[in-house]
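Helix-turn-helix domain-containing protein
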Amino acid sequence: MPRANLTVTIPDGIWIGDVTRAHPDATVRILSALTGDEAGVGLAEITAPDLQDVVSDIQDSDSVVELEILQQYQDTVLVQFETTMPLLLFPVQDSGVPLTMPFTIQDGQAEWELTAPQHRLSELGTQLDEFGIPFTVNEIRQHIEPEQLLTERQFRLVSAAVERGYYDTPRECSLTDLAETLELAKSTCSETLHRAEEKIVKQFLEDLDGTTIESPHP
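Tokens:
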């Protein structure tokens, strides 16, 4: 399944973007968030050298209707907030893409990690564009769990081969040694390893083709 890393630029007029641009040394980590039709609630960790000024600016924002300080230590504060303008969550909600938490906002930009089918990532790109939210795709790659690609026996054999230096240069373990270690016939070991290598190489080449969502903004 594709895994994407995006940098999202929060438009002017959105409180979290305005506050972090006014305090570029501040870092806001959104730990959890949910949104409805008219409001959003979130839990955030804010770290800043001018922490009190950042909190005051958030409290003064017209679109933040509630801000409760849950914990404070040194230059970091944990807050729960409610806002009437959870703009960043609308495209995610409408596209059906689960947003990995936590994510960081600094100087008006959010860093997102997303894992979703290609058609949903494409829909997210469309939704971000419709909401007027610029974004940049930093990386996108196909994420395959080892157990999805290889059988349990193949995975165990490849792991053992790597661990014992079978793929090192110069090779530290022969096929015979590997087979004996795992108590397999040499022919069985060779065939199983070859089938596993075939899957890995084909998946690697498929990943090189890439799957991407196009940003409408340079």
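The first strand starts at residue 2 and ends at 9.
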